[in-house]
Structures are given as structure tokens and as C-alpha cells.
Amino acid sequence: MSAGYLIAFEGIDGSGKSTAVRAVAARLRSEGYTVDVTREPGGTPLGTQIRELIMASAETIAPDAELLLMCADRAEHLAKLIEPALTEGHIVITDRYAASTIAYQGYGHGIDLARVQAALDLATNGRWPDLTLLLDIPVATADQRRRRNLAAMDALDRRAGEFRERVRTGYLVQANGNPDWVTIDATTAPGQVADACYAAIRDRLLAGVT
Questions:
Q1: Residue 10 DSSP symbol
Q2: What residues does each domain of the chain span?
Q3: Buried residues in 102-111 as b, exposed as e (16+ CB within 10 A)
Q4: With 0-12 CB in 10 A as exposed, 13-18 as middle and 19+ as buried, what is 43?
Q5: What is the Cα–Cα distance from 75 to 156, expressed in whole angstroms?
Q6: What is the mean pLDDT of the segment spanning 178-199?
Q7: pLDDT of residue 208
Q8: CA–CA dist 186, 134 (Å, integer)
Q9: Can you name the residues that pair with 132 across neighbouring β-strands?
Q10: Domain 5-206, what architecture?
Q11: Tens digit of pLDDT for each residue in 140-159?
């Protein structure tokens, strides 16, 4: 059985990741691929508890504590969901992965990047995505979208605009020159964003695969 692929969708809140994930997964399934969709934090029973804990304390949690909780979630996610699915040859699409930790806890909170990387090395055990799709959007545009859907905003979404600007910078720095990343213009219509994500997956991972 061939190994599967791990695909991460990344971007600031309001970039349309979740919508694109659903559309791309549905299209790949229609072509006969087995696709597992998950998210971080979350994705496992323990991860759901960690997510609830982070959301409940997002206004007051110490940055280092948030970093370690995110990495604990990721270690469980890999062990219980991602690695078994990849072994079975599935395509795993995750809404956020390790790049989010670098962007949010590293660039957003200002934790030393070497410390962030050390935590990630333990949490990921060297497993990085085969492809990362960065849905890039200006913070002001994302904020307009988020204000239209206030009910869907969680505690992490409400962090100050300066924080999100640093997060976006963190993503763009990671994507720059990285052959395993594709940056998608997320300011276009949701269907166009999904089409661009799908095309990147076909071109980078699935060309010639049936």
C-alpha cells in the first residue's frame, strides 16, 4: 500500500481555510481518493479538550503555556489520527499544523523561534506536510469578513490586529522560497480559492496518480 499525503491549509483567521478544505476534500473524494479532514487544535478527543481549554483561557494564558498545549495537541493528533491514516494511504487534510505554531506562538507572541522549533521537533517527530497551502489575505480584508460573522468568532479570532499582522508576516516568511509551500490569493471568491488549492494539490502531489 502506498503512503498517503499530508496537506496543511494555513492562513490567518478569515482567510477562508475551512471553506476551501471542505470544497477540496469533496472534490478529491469524488475522484475516488480516501480523504481524512481534521484540524488543529482538535481532531482527537484529547485535542478537543485541549482546544476547549485554550479557548476558555485565550485572554490570559501565558504564551509558553499556549505553545506547549498546542504541541501536546499535535503529538496526540499525529499518533492517533494522522500517522495511522497516512500508513493506510489516505490523503490527510489538516486545517492548521506546525506552521501555525511558528506563526502564532513564534511571530505573534514573540516566543524565541529556536524554542518554538525545539517544541515542534518533539511534537512532530519530524513529520511535516508534503504540501502546505497558505491562503494569504490582508488583515484588514480578513477583519471585514470576520465582522460579518461575529457569531463564528472564537477567543483566538479576537486578538488585536497588530497580533494578526505579525502572524501573517510569520506565514509569509515561512512560505518564501519553500518548495513545499504554495501561496494562494485568498482575496478572490471562495470557489476560485478552492480551485487554486485543488490545482496545487494535483500539480504537486497527484500528477499521474490514479
A1: E
A2: 5-206
A3: bbbbbbbbeb
A4: buried
A5: 21
A6: 97
A7: 63
A8: 9
A9: 8, 181
A10: 3-Layer(aba) Sandwich (3.40)
A11: 998 888 776 554 455 555 66
